[in-house]
Structures are given as structure tokens and as C-alpha cells.
Design brief:
CATH architecture: 4-Layer Sandwich
Number of helices: 6
Oligomer: single chain
Number of domains: 1
Helix content: 10-25%
CATH topology: Purple Acid Phosphatase, chain A, domain 2
Radius of gyration: 20 Å
Strand order of the largest sheet: 1-2-7-8-9-11-10
Strand content: 25-35%
Largest sheet: 7 strands, mixed
Bound molecules: fe (ii) ion
Order of helices and strands: EEEHEHEHHEEEHEEEHEE
Length: 304
């Protein structure tokens, strides 16, 4: 059996809480892989790239938060967009939805322990509405059943994930709050959806605000100032992260739907977060001010 990973996810009141067993050492780190819009069952989904990132997540003992549209599910009888040329042969069967979930479980099972949350996208929500089944819940339950150590939770279209870094039995804890949304709207060829960051910064108090859906990627910091309990002026940066997709819908720019609509090609990939201590040796009590994270967008060029 694989080594137990240093975190576990659970539902706690209205949020998903991930407790991360941390170490007070200079080389301690915790990776988080943020993904969205895999559209895994679509013929245009780049599975090679997903596999590469999933393997890296395993190597890094990363926890994975997926923001939805893990499945595309557009080839069902009920969907006007369905077309025979867009369905994978293993899904071209009578029980289409069951086949997608079953094959998805086989594919993602080796990484079941790494997933902390799988959220719901508009594609899953649309099937749930039409076919009276909760696709995300069915998939999460089946994935959890493949491994006794998996604590993967079902996420909604939007919600909060609290990363809680703890140290054994010590009551000392540091946390980072992530406010996620699957995403909405068309993004915009010029603004690339960055305008949403300014809107969400008005109403969200989280440390990280992230979303997928528009298949673009960027990181956009918004810094606010306030005063701490000691009367010192402090600046706090809220990171807005747009998480890309793994679906290569544009192709070579010939004659598919996106080409006809004049839509642009989009980046494929994921976002990595790496949490670490800035300076663990001194001033233990002030450490919460020094937990830090790097942001790294991992993308691939077309044809790579
Ligand atoms: Fe979406």
C-alpha cells in the first residue's frame, strides 16, 4: 500500500477543511495542485499532460483541489451537442453516464489519496438537472471506495476550502482560506476574465480566490491595507488565480465551432501552490506572518 499522505480532508460545517500535518523545519513544504475543466472524457482532453501532473502530484505528496468540469458529458441522448465523432469508443455504450464514471474511476484511482476535493462544474450540474443523478457525488464516492486512505470530498459550484497547517498534538495552527468558484461567463477575449478578480475582491475575504471555466490562466494580486491588534499598519495580499483547462478545443484553427466563432486558442495546464516557511528558526509565535506560498502556472504549448 502507498504511504499515507500528510493530510486529510473533511466537511466541517459549511466548508471543506484540510488538516495538513506540518513540520517546523526549514525544508518542510506542502504542494497543492489546482486543476479545473479537465473535460476528461472529451476526445480533445489532453490526458498525457494530466497524467504528467498527476504523477508529479504523487511525487510531491501534493493535495489536489479540482474546480469542476472534470467530466464533459456532452454525448448523452439528452444533449443537443452530442456527436458520434466526439465520443470515445469505451463510452459509446447503452449506459453512457455509468461508463464515463466507471472509466474515470479506473483512471484517477492511483491518485485517489491526493484528491482533497472535486468540485462541480456547469457540465456536471447540467447532467444532474436533466438526468436526476448527482454525477460529482457518484464519482467522489466511487473514487473514495478505491482507497482506504482517500478522504476526497465533493465540492459545490462554489465554496470554501480551509487549509489548516498543524503540528502533532500542539494547538498551534496556521490556516489559509481558499474561496473557489467553478467559474461563469465567457471570460472575454480582451479582459481574460480578470475583471472578475476586482468584483470578487469586493465581497470575498479569503486569502486565495480561484476559479476555472473560461480556460484561461493568470494570477492577479490585490493588496489591501489594515491595522493589526498591535496598532501596526499591515498590508495583506489576496491572490486571484484563474485555473486553466486540459481541453485543447481550438486544434489547428481549421473549422471547428471555436474557430468559426473566432474564439482564441487557450493555454492548457494547471496551477501549483507550494507552501513553506520563510524563516522557521526564530520567533515561533510570529510564524503565522511568515508562512508563505509560491504560485506557479504550469502550461504546455500546442503540440508539445
Ligand atoms: Fe465550465
Amino acid at each position: 500500500m502507498a504511504d499515507k499522505l500528510p493530510f486529510k480532508a473533511k466537511e466541517h460545517n459549511d466548508i471543506i477543511q484540510v488538516e495538513i500535518e506540518s513540520k517546523w523545519t526549514k525544508d518542510w513544504e506542502q504542494w497543492v495542485l489546482l486543476t479545473s475543466d479537465r473535460h476528461w472524457d472529451n476526445v480533445k482532453s489532453n490526458r498525457r499532460l494530466q497524467k504528467q501532473h498527476l504523477e508529479l502530484a504523487k511525487e510531491r505528496k501534493a493535495l489536489i483541489l479540482d474546480l469542476g468540469d472534470l467530466f464533459c458529458l456532452m454525448q448523452g441522448k439528452y444533449d443537443p451537442r452530442s456527436s458520434k465523432s466526439s465520443i470515445r469508443p469505451e463510452h459509446n455504450v447503452t449506459h453512457y453516464l455509468d461508463a464515463v464514471i466507471d472509466t474515470g474511476v479506473d483512471y484517477f484511482a492511483p491518485y485517489a489519496d491526493n484528491f482533497a476535493m472535486i468540485g462541480t462544474g456547469n457540465h456536471e450540474a447540467s447532467v444532474s438537472r436533466r438526468c436526476e443523478t448527482d454525477i460529482t457525488s457518484r464519482f467522489v464516492e466511487a473514487l473514495r471506495a478505491t482507497s482506504p486512505n482517500s478522504t476526497v470530498q465533493r465540492g459545490g459550484i462554489t465554496g470554501f476550502v480551509k487549509l489548516q497547517f498543524k503540528f502533532g498534538k500542539s494547538t498551534q495552527k496556521f490556516s489559509y482560506l481558499i474561496d473557489y468558484h467553478h467559474g461563469y461567463g465567457g471570460g472575454g477575449p480582451v479582459t481574460k476574465n480578470v475583471i472578475q478578480a476586482n468584483r470578487r475582491a469586493v465581497y470575498s475575504e479569503a486569502d486565495i480566490v480561484c476559479q476555472g471555466h473560461v480556460h484561461d490562466t493568470w494570477q492577479f494580486p490585490i493588496t489591501k491595507r489594515t491595522v493589526n491588534n498591535a496598532g501596526r499598519i499591515i498590508h495583506k495580499t489576496q491572490w486571484h488565480l484563474q485555473v486553466p483547462s486540459y481541453k485543447q478545443h481550438y486544434g489547428k484553427g481549421k473549422e471547428n465551432w471555436e474557430n468559426l466563432k473566432g474564439m482564441p486558442p487557450k493555454p492548457l495546464g494547471c496551477v501549483w501552490l507550494r507552501f513553506y516557511w520563510d524563516n522557521p528558526q526564530v520567533d515561533y509565535n510570529q510564524a503565522s506572518k511568515r508562512i508563505n506560498f509560491d504560485r506557479h502556472i504550469d502550461i504546455v504549448e500546442y503540440g508539445a
